[in-house]
Amino acid sequence: MATKIVSTVQECAISKAVENSSDKYSPDTLMRYHTTLALIDGLVADGCFTQADKRKAYTIINQKYGLSSDSIYAEIA
């Protein structure tokens, strides 16, 4: 009997397609953005991240998705 080898590695949470997307306000991009922020919020709630870490992470994620801090879609920590 042959053994099937399957990769169990997950994709990066933020794909290259999102980083290079010309439509940063598309529903798919915004859903990924808010999902990423929810992961950060979960780490803060679990005590893994401090509020200062959260602010830094939000800034990095905003930049990664091309959202300025004064955008109505951007979250601010």
Describe this structure in words.
There is one protein chain. With 77 residues, the chain is mainly α. Helices cover 49% and strands 0% of the residues. It has three helices and no strands. Helix 2 runs antiparallel to helix 3 (51-64). The longest helix is centred in the middle third of the chain and has 20 residues, at 27-46.
Mean pLDDT: 82
Biggest sheet features: none
Distance between the termini: 54 Å
SSE pattern: HHH
Name its key features.
3 helices, 77 residues, mainly alpha
Task: Give a short synopsis of this structure.
The chain is mainly α and 77 residues long. Helix content is 49%, strand content 0%.
Give the secondary structure arrangement, pairings included.
Blueprint lengths: L15 H4 L7 H20 L4 H14 L13
